Amino acid sequence: MLHRLIHSARVKVFESSRFYYWVLWSVVGYSILNQSIKKILWVMFDKQYSPNLTGIIVYSLTGAALIISFLTLLKAIRKDLIFYMGLLSFVVLIQSLMFTTTFDWEYFSGFFIYNNGFYLLKYLFPFLFLSIWMELNKSESYAFSFFFYLKKLLVLNACLIYVGAVFSLSLFESYPLSGRWGYSGILWSGGMNNIMYAICLIHHWSTLKKLNWEFFMLSSGLLLMGQKSALLYLLLIIVFVVNKMMFVKKVFFAIILLMIVYFNKIISFISSFDSFWSDVYEKHGAMGVFLSLRNENIEKVLSQELANEHFIYKILFGGLAIFPERIEMYPVDMLFYFGAIGLIATIIFYVKWIPEFKYAIPIIVASFGGQLYDIIPIMMVFFVWVASCKRQNFS
Hints:
75% helix; 395 residues; 18 helices
């Protein structure tokens, strides 16, 4: 009886693509609902959304299921993923031991619960999901279903984006009550919104290869968000996914070269069309506008740590930043949290794992300011998208 129960749990839960399909929807759905409620309370009732136990329960139960599945499927899981997760865990362990002359249990436990140990768990959570998803049968068909319904949801939200843009409704703004232009519908998390739209847009074109009304709604939704990362997504998708002409790609690289040469003049000209960015340009210069002041955050962290006696060790093993401080640029945050060792391992992983350039677009945008790697639900969506496409291509 017990044996049959264990076998049933393995087949129907811990080794089931259907189960993890609903896990994916639970995590993504909770995040979307949570952000929407926050936005409504903030704009309409001038209230902050107090933390609740729902998110803790969702992620705790998901994490427990992932650990059990990981142990169950351990022999089948890709060794490079195991090595990568183990390496990052090792460098964070080194951090916790490196900066104290004598072992301090209170410091050690606090570091893992509240600081970089917590950030490590947050960062590795989607990688743990990926390691399991890649070994599940029929996961690509469930991925297709997931993106089918996610696209419908985003198209519906694009209608709200249009309503917000036409009638200037604060509830549908990307940055409500801030004076900054842009509309995101009922969604609020800027990083999550543009990445979902971009991935669904690439998935839509890769699947159907036609410019229909859904493609228009997704792309115009990106355009109206008023975010530099959203515009970069749209530009890269048009040039490297939709377009097949080499001439257009050469023109794109020529424009990039010209932008580098005339960087200050171009940023000054573009900033003049928006009072918010014009003010940022006056106070912080062209690089401040381009990187949304992230360059100053980098300078601040390095200036504080440069004289530190452990600076070289922190460059190697991480610890230049302590959670929740972060730059929101993928390579920089990897260097600051996990050191050169973690950064090099991350680059090697993506170079080996991503099959085509179009799947690397979210990583490229995240390197300049997209928050892909810092948002668990969207990182899971990204991994499901790439992993399922890889399985379809090699099946």
